[in-house]
Structure prediction request, 801 residues.
Amino acid sequence: MYRYDQYDQAIVDARVAEFKEQVGRRLRNEITEDQFKPLRLMNGLYLQLHAYMLRVAIPYGTLSGTQMRMLAHIARKYDRDYGHFTTRQNIQYNWIKLEQFSDLLDDLSKVEMHAFQTSGNCIRNISSDQFAGAAADELADPRPYAELLRQWSTLHPEFSFLPRKFKIAVIASDTDRAAIQLHDIGLQLRKNDAGDLGFRVYVGGGMGRTPIIGKIVRDFIPVGQFLSYSEGILRVYNRYGRRDNIYKARIKILVTELGIEEFTRQVEAEWAQLEPLGLDAPQAEYDRIIAQFSDPEYDLTATDTLDLSDPDFAMWVAQNVHAHKQPGYAIATISLKPKRGIPGDASSAQIDVIADLAEKYAHDEIRVTHSQNLVLAHVRKADLYALWQALDAADLATPNLDLVTDIIVCPGMDYCTLANARSIPIAQNIAAKFENNVAEQRDIGELKIKVSGCINGCGHHHAGHIGILGVDKKGEEAYQLLLGGSGAEDASLAKILGPGLDENGIVAAVDKLIAFYRTARSAPEERFLDTYRRLGPAPFKEAVYG
Amino acid sequence: MDNQDQSAVAGAPSPALDDTPALLRFRDDAPFESPIAPLADFLGGGNFAAVRVDPGENARDLIPHLGRLKLIEVAFPKFRDGRGYSSANILREAGFTGEIRAVGDVLVDQIGFMRRVGFDSFAPDAPLDPGVVQATLDRYPYVYMKSADGKTPVWALRHG
Amino acid sequence: MPRILTGNRLETGDVLWWNGSDWSTQIKDAVALGEEGDALVARLVAEERINDPVLVDVTGEPGAYVPTTTRERVRASGPSVRADLARGSLSTEVI
Ligand code: HEM
Ligand code: SF4
Prediction:
């Protein structure tokens, strides 16, 4: 994985010093909260319901054991002993004190981490495929390009006061594990007919109030020019994105209002101006970064034999372990959706355990997934059983990846100032009906339930096979039910099924939907989403409201 | 700190006696102080050597006229509105070497970015603390990307 | 309906209630405010030491006020899903 050199470290150190100074000015009342707020947001510091909330960046969701252990240390020393992994591969802490924030940033910077640009109207943390570098189906590791983007976008002088936040995701396989079509820019690495590497560029996807699937602005931009091309997109957005209405300020609205042809024309014209300026990093820099993502030193004697005689282990392997490109290796997903848990939350002790296991069994690498789970990407099959036992002892071996209890949830009204309703209890109550019966969950099959506490859609409800959205109904918490979304390569937006329901009603509705699906599917392999796509909403609506 | 008028930074900016905000300049030539035309008037054919570009106006409209301009003011009615950064960068990319002045809601925490995209003078609504200005401009030893200030990005330093 | 004053301390982010002469981290200490509440909010906004000072509607008796909105009840009690982190004077049960 990427390690900082003296330049990266010097920039982080300077940024930390800058923010400390800004905090000092605020604490001395030399600036107002109005002036300070955008400064703290650019360091990922929000004021939430209970305290300050800090979002720490995990670039493209990859971190080392040492970094992971630091996340546990932060939780223990500055917070209440836990953190929350988010859908954009970051971690959030909920109980941070402003007066301790400088020390916290110092601690983070010791392990090459920070919180810059995890909030605010700037280019946010770049996200990527959690199986990068390990997946059997990828063209190349996408993370070197994510790292190039990270550097290009860090403290970008022209694009730090954009109309609104800006999110970029990069993948390198046809299977989309990073929801690229729901990002402001989504990049898919591919080869053209001549065999050269480049990106297909999607622009203008996003969720929130006006969910839109991204459109292709360019089918192929050579990798050597994708930074200047991104600069072109950002410049068009910075100049012409709407600033009169915060709800219309994302690039998706600009793309929609201009139409994709006109938007593309403007981007191409801008890029024609920018390309000759030599903004793209040279090949030597690509090579330097790519080298840091080279394969770990695999054990070439590792074999594919796996003893599955322990049925619980076999269940976990079947559900949470994926094929690796290297013979004798596997990719293991650690579920952060245990029974009665809070999706995405992990205690300091659990974070430490995972750090240790990553060092011991997984070439010192951990990934965060956009479904709020963690991944050990390079595990010898021979080590899987020992790994599973250790995870199980820490309540980290729930075999439910992509099943009904693997729910994506935003913090909702238990933490978030913007919420209309709580989202975590809804997920817990849905999961409670299934969590004791893994066989039943597996019979139901892949089912992505996603819950947001308000229209901002941090819980990806629009990309849920079943989406749930908290709304305010005359002061009471209520929930809308949406069906048919997908954040994968078959991206689609979920649509509202019928009238809103209360907390018990929504939980019961999910039950009815699942019961109906199990009678209506054409074959056991047909996923909930596919049955919905085949039959349309009417029978599902009848099942819930009939 | 490159090419700047030290006195403007080191000496405490004198509180404005009239309504004119204190000017912070990073140029050696004398400030140009005469009528600054709104963009529409300038493009309408008036004989001006200074022009003002508001957010939402197209800085590229000035490109055919850069030779006769001494000063281009770029307005920041609200610091959160970042369109002026692109305006300045576009003007420098087109080769403009005259003064580009950021006017309005210009805060100390923005001037590092503003210097990078080519602003070389500042007329903030509220006076800036010179010590903080100095610290801000001295802060970053390296930059990741090219911009109008010509600083060498780290990828070039890394590969000599 | 009685109104009580709440806000977050700048330095710590702590959730606070006004007890008539000072801030408390327990809603049980909150006092109901009349007209003087609005003047107090205006002063606090100008002082810039308490973030988001605001008067919220409550029901119940002094010493046992309960806010009318779920949001404010969550602020007063702690997250409903973490009873172990409850602030103490208002049970997460009331959310
Ligand atoms: C608790 C503090 C949080 C606040 C205040 C917050 C705020 C917001 C807001 C205002 C938006 C809408 C932006 C827009 O449409 O322009 C948004 C979108 C989003 N947030 Fe959050 N969020 C929070 C937590 C989270 C968490 C915990 C996650 C991950 C689990 C998350 C992931 C996202 C994602 C993926 C989007 C959708 C981006 C898009 O529209 O394309 N946020 N957030
Ligand atoms: S979706 Fe709404 S409630 Fe949930 S975290 Fe985002 S802003 Fe908060």
Q: What stands out?
A: Chain A touches chain B at residues 5, 7-8, 10-11, 14, 17-18, 21-22, 25, 30, 35, 38-39, 121, 151-152, 154-163, 235, 238-239, 243, 273-274, 277-279, 281-282, 284-285, 288 (CB under 8 Å). Chain A has 17 helices and 20 strands. Residues 445 and 525 of chain A are 8 Å apart (CA to CA). The longest strand of chain A covers residues 215-222.
